[in-house]
Amino acid sequence: MYPRTLQTRGHPFSARTKTRILIILFVCLAARLVLFGVFQPWNPDVESERVLWRDAVGYHRLAITLIEAHRFAYEKTGQPDALRTPLYPGLVAITYSAFGYRPWVVMVVQILLDILACLLMFLSLSRMFDEKVGLLAAGFYSLEPFLILYSAANLVSDSLFILLVILTLYLVAPYKGEIASRRGLLRFGLSGLSIGLATLTRPVSIYLPVCVAIFLLLACRRNARIALRYSAVTIVVFLITISPWLYRNLKTFGYLSLSTSGQYNLLVLDVTPMEMSRRHLDRETVKQELLAEADEMMENAGKNPSELNRFQVAEYWNRLARRYIADNPTAFAHGYLLGVSNLFLNLGTTDYGRTLGLKPMQVDFLQDMNVLGRLRAFMKEAGMARLLIAAPIAIFLLLSYLGAALGVIVSWRIYDWRNILLVLLFGLYFVLVTGPAGLARFKLPSIPFYLAFSAIGYSFVYTKLLVRKHAQGDGRPECAVSASEQLHGNSVED
After folding, report:
1. Which three-class secondary structure string do you get for 157-213?
2. Is the pLDDT of residue 184 over 80?
3. What is the DSSP letter of 443?
């Protein structure tokens, strides 16, 4: 049996560890700068055709209006926006104010944020597990293809959001193996602040304080007072952090809510996939038909859609989506499973292809649960360029998933179960809230957490190989090597 490790080494990192993490951070920077240089987002044609599209257009326009009219709207005299939350558009606006309306400068900022997230991931996992796990996880993070793509070649909020999520992990994780400490209230108060800022970046983290409370109640099951106290301070600070935006929406729209994104996503991203199969239509056509049905519901209720504010419109999106789900829960469950499947099988070649100027593909993989069928369709249409993109991504994902599966299995008998539980809770949360959409981008917040298990898995394999080599060198059977040597390889490494 392996002993459970202490949650911190209790001493500064060695010179070798510092050198290794600096190399990993350099690789992290270099990988992103290579894609950034190939993409050339400073080129006016690239900016207009491949940078400012989909969500990026909205963030760009919101930032400009914030600067020029001090309003959170897409146009100076337009209606206030209810879909987006303010932190990322604010970051874009600050960058534009300093460097001009140049989206590529924002991408440079995102690259720096992603490097900081990589460093913070190393610090978090080194404290929670050990330095080897921290280094391996940071190494995986530095080369993760989706993190590279969305930090270096997209004007989207994910890099900022992931940094805040990893910061939350760092703050919530047991300190020196203990949850209750003199700094406990401060740490959990700061975790409430970081979750609040993350939620003001992307509302998908709005229920993350519940995960923190569940973790505390399980980890401190023998000390309910501590669990309740720390849960309360996390939730209170979280609510204080998001309250100015809640007040803004209450005053502007009459709704005490963060955003209309939940209702919009439920209809457009969650119901659309199951209706695509039933109607035998493409995604965009189904989306427009569903939005038109919602408009018809408003008109039947005697209301003009153009005269309603966005939260009022969102109520009808929500009603229509729930009606479809209630009428056919089996199809929704099927679509949900298909979406989660696609989340992890998606190689991101569509977005990488667009970044590199390739022609868009016409295959929509959400219509078929048959993995082999989806693979054949991809191979038929992809072309050589996409296959060359897909191959290294597929290899990287396969290695990370295999390592994560092994890590989940072995971690419970090596490390403190509370740390394993925390990483598992956060990872599962971000997987389950994605729903049936199945878009590659939606996987991003879960990546640091399954990479943590990948690092544990490969650390275990590496240690076993060292133990076997050491045992053979000493002429001892492997079972005779001490548990401490098995876990840390202390007599072999360093």
Report:
1. CHHHHHHHHHHHHHHHCCECCECCCCCHHHHHHHHHHHHHHHHCCCHHHCCHHHHHH
2. yes
3. G
Q: What is the pLDDT of residue 69?
A: 95
- Bridge partners, residue 365, by sequence: none
Q: Which two tokens stand for residue 81?
A: 């926006």
Hey, what are 87's tokens?
A: 């932190």
| C-alpha 199: how far from chain center | 12
Contact 245, 252 (CB under 8 A): no
Q: What is this structure's pTM? A: 0.91
For tokens 């209810």, the residue is: 82
pLDDT at 201: 98
CB 35 within 8 A of CB 152: yes
Q: What is the pLDDT of residues 363-379, one digit of tens each?
A: 554 444 455 666 666 66
Give the Cα-Cα-Cα angle 401, 215, 207 (nearest 5 degrees): 80
Q: Are 135 and 24 in contact (CB under 8 A)?
A: yes
**CA 449 to each of CA 221, 346, 422, 426: distance values in angstroms, whole numbers, following the listed order:** 24, 18, 9, 7
One-letter amino acid identity for 251? K
**Cα radius of gyration rounded to whole Å, the chain:** 24
The mean pLDDT value of the chain amounts to: 88
Contacts of 194 (CB under 8 A, 6+ apart): 164, 167, 168, 171
5: left (phi over 0), alpha (psi -120 to 50) or beta: beta
Please state, in angstroms and as integers, the Cα–Cα distance from residue 373 to each residue in 310, 330, 401, following that order.
Answer: 40, 22, 22
